[in-house]
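Lab notebook, bench 4. The sequencing result for the construct came back, and we need a structural model before the next group meeting so we can plan mutations. Quick request posted to the team channel:

Model the 3D structure of this chain.
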Amino acid sequence: MSQRLQMLQVARLARRTLGDAADLVVSFLGSTAASAGGYCNRGGQPDLYYTSFSLDALMALDALPAGNEQAAATVRFLDAFGAGGGLDFVHRCCLARAWASQPVDALPIDSRAALLAGVTGHRAADGGYCSRAGAPRGTAYGCFLAVNAMADLKRPLAEAGPEAEGIVNCLHSLRAEDGGWANAAGRPEGSTTATAAAIATLRNLGRPVPQGVGEWLLARCHPAGGFTAAPDAPIPDLLSTAVSLHALDALEVPWREHRERMLDFIDTLWTAEGAFHGSWADDEPDAEYTFYGLIALGHCSV
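Done. Here's the predicted structure in token form:
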């Protein structure tokens, strides 16, 4: 199962905690829909990145528009990007993710193949993936995005073979001195998101995760709840919390003694309009962090 589908399964569990408030989340996401198609960013403009998060959040809440004008507008919005030739690597992966939420025949086969070629064209010289084409080394984030985009485009990587081996070797080269993962080799400290990305990618490729990584993530747990982005980060954030809980559950590392603190932290980021802030320093909620809020709540709901 792809990482996207795994996250959707967890996000669906958030309804256990949200109860009737799930309708508020649907309403918030609906309020970001652009009349011409797609979903808007914080500036009120249709945005492919935020569209991919909005679509997955709506799907998790069984509220994805279907058979109406909004659904048709979404397809037109995505179709306007063609095979992603004018997009950077991250947005190509977002386009693949957004198409994955649509009916399987919505994206023509030729466009699917061209979009896939655009993604795989970012393979680095070391066998990993990087947002910059022709890079000598891949990054944990790049490998995570590429593997997921390939799955979204119905071409999941085989666990065996040189392509998977190259990604695994790239990830091993990105281990930081403190036992986490970084997005560049030779770093003294890892980051929470890079570590969670590496864990997810290794597991998707059927490879073992080194011992002690779960404990490294647990050490990022903040006394007030949530997880921090790095060992020296002063406050926790919702992205780091969601991906840490997802990785810890995947590794079957016990963390639920912190569950009440996690729920308290998530609650501090909830807004009455049905969305989530990214952190205590974030003034405006959006679809991206709302999706991460659903994932974090989903893990706490089990």
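The chain has 14 helices and no strands.
Will bring this to the meeting.
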